[in-house]
């Protein structure tokens, strides 16, 4: 075979199928890790952990999302199963945002360096107002109203 020739055929197709399968398996592992057991409440039943990005609007008054001590100053906390990202851009100021990236609907994955980050396509959003800091996203994360009562944070 010369340097200009590229091997195609069954060997190439098998390698592609293997790589595609490995990628799908990796994605399944990552997604299953996102659905962790965030609470031990028995009131939620079987449907609570599988809520994904659905907001808990009806239960916002019955239980806290987090304690103020759980949210680092200059950082945040992603509560995907409860449908909210809570940030603390400056001491004592708490902000809430939708945990779904506005680019293509991936869940945001971490809060670091003053931004809420989506590692699907590397969009970054401000922890202060949810605005886009870097794309490909062009639309800010939707704000969620929070209520802080003592050291407990709930949806308003």
TrEMBL record:
<keyword id="KW-0001">2Fe-2S</keyword>
<protein>
    <submittedName>
        <fullName>Ferredoxin subunit of nitrite reductase or a ring-hydroxylating dioxygenase</fullName>
    </submittedName>
</protein>
<feature type="compositionally biased region" description="Low complexity">
    <location>
        <begin position="44"/>
        <end position="53"/>
    </location>
</feature>
<dbReference type="GO" id="GO:0051537">
    <property type="term" value="F:2 iron, 2 sulfur cluster binding"/>
</dbReference>
<feature type="region of interest" description="Disordered">
    <location>
        <begin position="38"/>
        <end position="66"/>
    </location>
</feature>
<keyword id="KW-0408">Iron</keyword>
<dbReference type="Pfam" id="PF00355">
    <property type="entry name" value="Rieske"/>
</dbReference>
<keyword id="KW-0223">Dioxygenase</keyword>
<dbReference type="GO" id="GO:0046872">
    <property type="term" value="F:metal ion binding"/>
</dbReference>
<dbReference type="GO" id="GO:0016705">
    <property type="term" value="F:oxidoreductase activity, acting on paired donors, with incorporation or reduction of molecular oxygen"/>
</dbReference>
<dbReference type="InterPro" id="IPR036922">
    <property type="entry name" value="Rieske_2Fe-2S_sf"/>
</dbReference>
<keyword id="KW-0479">Metal-binding</keyword>
<dbReference type="InterPro" id="IPR006311">
    <property type="entry name" value="TAT_signal"/>
</dbReference>
<keyword id="KW-0411">Iron-sulfur</keyword>
<dbReference type="GO" id="GO:0051213">
    <property type="term" value="F:dioxygenase activity"/>
</dbReference>
<dbReference type="GO" id="GO:0004497">
    <property type="term" value="F:monooxygenase activity"/>
</dbReference>
<dbReference type="InterPro" id="IPR017941">
    <property type="entry name" value="Rieske_2Fe-2S"/>
</dbReference>
<keyword id="KW-0560">Oxidoreductase</keyword>
<feature type="domain" description="Rieske">
    <location>
        <begin position="63"/>
        <end position="155"/>
    </location>
</feature>
């Amino acid at each position: 075979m010369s340097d200009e020739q590229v091997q195609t055929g069954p060997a190439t197709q098998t390698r592609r199928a293997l790589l595609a399968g490995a990628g799908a398996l990796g994605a399944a592992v990552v997604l299953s890790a996102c659905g962790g057991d965030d609470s031990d409440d028995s009131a939620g039943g079987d449907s609570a952990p599988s809520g994904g990005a659905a907001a808990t609007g009806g239960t916002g008054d019955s239980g806290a999302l987090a304690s103020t001590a759980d949210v680092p100053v200059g950082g945040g906390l992603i509560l995907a199963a409860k449908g909210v990202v809570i940030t603390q851009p400056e001491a004592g100021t708490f902000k809430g945002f939708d945990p779904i990236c506005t680019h293509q609907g991936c869940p945001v994955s971490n809060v670091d360096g003053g931004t809420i980050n989506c590692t699907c396509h590397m969009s970054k959003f401000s922890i202060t107002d949810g605005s886009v800091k870097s794309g490909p996203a062009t639309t800010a994360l939707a704000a969620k109203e929070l209520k802080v009562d003592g050291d407990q944070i709930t949806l308003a």
